[in-house]
Amino acid sequence: MALAESHLPEAWDILSQWWPQVRQAELRQTGLLAIATLRQDEAIQFLVTLIAQGDRRDAADALEAISLYQADENLWQRVRDAVVQRADAALQQQFDTLRLPTK
Known about the structure:
Order of helices and strands: HHHHHHH
Mean pLDDT: 89
Radius of gyration: 13 Å
Helix content: over 70%
Number of domains: 1
Structural class: mainly alpha
Number of helices: 7
Strand content: under 5%
Number of strands: 0
Low-confidence stretches: none
C-alpha cells in the first residue's frame, strides 16, 4: 500500500507485474486496493477491465477497490457500464449496494 500511496509513476509498473503472480486471495484483494489508490489512468482502466472480463472474485474485489471513486460521475459510469457488460447478477447486486445514496 505504501508503494501505491507514493503515486510514483513506477508504482503501476511494479504492481501490474506483481499482482498476476499472487495467488493468495487476501493479497490479491489488497493489491487491487493498492492499484486503485494509484489514481493513474492505466491502473483505473485495469480495474474497469477486470470488472468487465476478469475472474468472478477478482471482478468483485476490483469493484470494491474502485468504489473509492464513486463520487466521480464519469468514472462511476464506466464502472456501471462494465458491470452491465458482464451481466452477472451478483456483481450487479454488489454494485447497487455500493452506490452512494442519491440526493
